[in-house]
Design brief:
The structure is a single chain. The protein has 508 residues and is an alpha+beta fold. It has 14 helices and 20 strands. The strands form 4 sheets. Strands 11, 12, 13, 14, 15, 16, 17, 18, 19 and 20 form a 10-stranded antiparallel sheet that branches. β6 and β7 form a beta hairpin. α6 crosses α7.
């Protein structure tokens, strides 16, 4: 039978992780190629179906049964599995084949050998499977590491413990080589001094992908998310420990197990805090990006269509506290008002030349859609607050700021509707950014003054060989002063300032 090496992950995603209830001892050996590497690779693959709870020291041993071959490295491990004995045997044989073991004579050299030593207290005798292993009681290279990690484990046929069996065999050919497979690394290069003494604001890893479960009870959803993780770097430290970013992420994910995070921004904040602790950094950042699907209907034909938006979260943590933001990325259609105004002027002149009266021309131009060049707009809206925000509201605010929404599916009546709507609402890139800021101020009148808002609009041009962008930001207090009370402010608080001043959430 063939075992899918990823079945445990798939089962986990489906909420059906098999329960590992059987205690098993395995013996591993290698005497060809990179012996340490072969043992480590076998352990890695075993973890797919085997919860390893203990691993012995590494032993350098004389070959048994056929002396004219290299010495072996041997280890024994204990763990738990949900596989039955036959399935486990099939799985370890697959590992041996994948790591290069070829059919050979008995006791010959091999890159990897994996034996099932004990499986619970079972005694099995079949043509291809015998448990306990029939020769373990006479092999010191098995009994020495087994007695190290489980001296009281009992071989069910003889009823003797591993320690008792070990005392009955010679051990001269077995030498302890190392406590683990890991190579001791004396130098910590990252903690050394850099060649150039200057602080860096950011150093980290980007593009880590993980499946995350987001939502509260009754409404949870799996997302395939991308993580960018950073820490600041002092002038006297050569580098950050890049693997610790992954460690921090994995630690946070393992804390929750199969539970979900209620909000993506809370996950980002927790990761940033963990990075501060693991990297001993003064400041850390976590950025998360994932796709957010929403069920919508086309405007005229009423066809159901899944529209996919970007869901974003950012968090910054220091030793004193942390702040977080949540946001969305939205596509839409933007119609250029400048080109439309030129078309209006041109149409007016042409109609005058054709002899139409001015009042008729004015009426015709007021009811007829006028041509302009169109742009695909990409809006980003992010809000920093402790309050829970509905992502669907953020999508609506960003989408409504453009000339029209767009759809992945459009029938001809829908296309006509969208084109007419966009040309009836021409907007510059600056208009879209300002519309978003105003929409946030009007929507969230109950949010406190220190809530932060950041918007970015990028329009992809069709007649120019460049694209256009506009950004706006500030606290709700600053935006309300300008938008609602027409006050003029010299400057607004920017994102960097807001993230670092007076963290919302203390680490105490």
């Amino acid at each position: 039978m063939s075992i899918d090496t990823t079945f445990t992950q798939q089962a986990a995603l489906n909420g059906k992780t098999p329960v590992a209830t059987h205690t098993v001892y395995l013996g591993l050996g290698s005497n060809l190629g990179d012996r340490r590497g072969n043992l480590a690779a076998a352990l890695q693959r075993l973890r797919e179906v085997f919860e390893i709870t203990s691993v012995s020291s590494v032993y350098d041993t004389e070959p048994v049964g056929f002396a004219d071959q290299p010495r072996f490295l041997n280890i024994v491990l204990r763990g738990q599995t949900a596989l039955d004995p036959e399935a486990l045997l099939d799985y370890v044989k697959q590992i041996e084949a994948k790591l290069g073991r070829q059919p050979s004579f008995r006791y010959g050299p091999r890159p990897i050998d994996i034996d099932i030593l004990l499986y619970d207290d079972l005694h099995i005798e079949q043509d291809n499977l015998t448990i306990p292993h029939p020769r373990m009681a006479e092999r010191a290279f098995v009994l020495v590491p087994l007695a190290e990690i489980a001296p009281e484990s009992v071989e069910p046929v003889s009823g003797k413990s591993a320690q008792e069996l070990l005392e009955a065999v010679p051990q001269a050919g077995v030498q302890k080589l190392a406590p683990t497979l890991r190579i001791s690394l004396d130098r910590d290069i990252q903690s050394g001094k850099p060649a150039v003494h200057v602080r860096l604001g950011r150093a980290g890893v980007v593009g880590i992908t993980k499946a995350i479960l987001i939502g509260d009870e009754g409404h949870q959803q799996w997302f395939n998310a991308t993580f960018d993780l950073y820490a600041n770097l002092g002038a006297s430290q050569a580098g950050v420990h890049m693997s610790r970013f992954s460690d921090a992420l994995d630690e946070v994910m393992e804390e929750m197990g199969q539970k979900s995070w209620p909000k993506i921004e809370l996950l980002a904040e927790h990761i940033a805090r963990t990075i501060v602790e693991k990297q001993q950094a003064l400041r850390a950042e976590a950025h998360i990006r994932t796709a957010y699907p929403l069920q919508k209907w086309t405007p005229v034909s009423g066809r159901p269509t899944q529209e996919v938006y970007g869901l974003l979260a950012e968090a910054v943590a220091t030793k004193e506290g942390s702040r977080r933001m949540v946001g969305v990325e939205v596509e839409g259609m933007v119609a250029c008002p400048c080109a439309q105004d030129m078309v209006h002027a041109y149409a007016q002149v042409r109609l005058q030349e054709e002899g139409f009266p001015d009042d008729v021309i004015a009426h015709m131009l007021s009811v007829t859609p006028l041509a302009t060049h169109n742009q695909r707009g990409r809006a980003t809206l992010m809000i920093g607050t402790e309050q829970d925000l509905d992502v669907r509201d953020l999508v609506d605010l960003a989408e409504s700021a453009m000339s029209s929404e767009n759809y992945g599916l459009l029938k001809r009546p829908d296309e006509l509707y969208i084109v007419n709507k966009a040309h009836a609402n021409p907007r510059f890139v600056e208009d879209v950014a300002r519309e978003m800021l105003q929409a946030v101020v009007e929507k969230y009148s109950d949010l406190p003054e220190d809530t932060f808002v950041w918007v970015h609009q990028r329009n992809e041009e069709t007649i120019h060989k460049y694209d256009v962008e506009a950004e706006g930001w500030g606290t709700l207090g600053e935006l309300r002063a300008e938008i609602l009370r027409s006050e003029s402010l010299e400057r607004h608080t920017n994102k960097e300032e807001w993230l670092l001043q007076h963290p919302l959430n203390s680490l105490d």
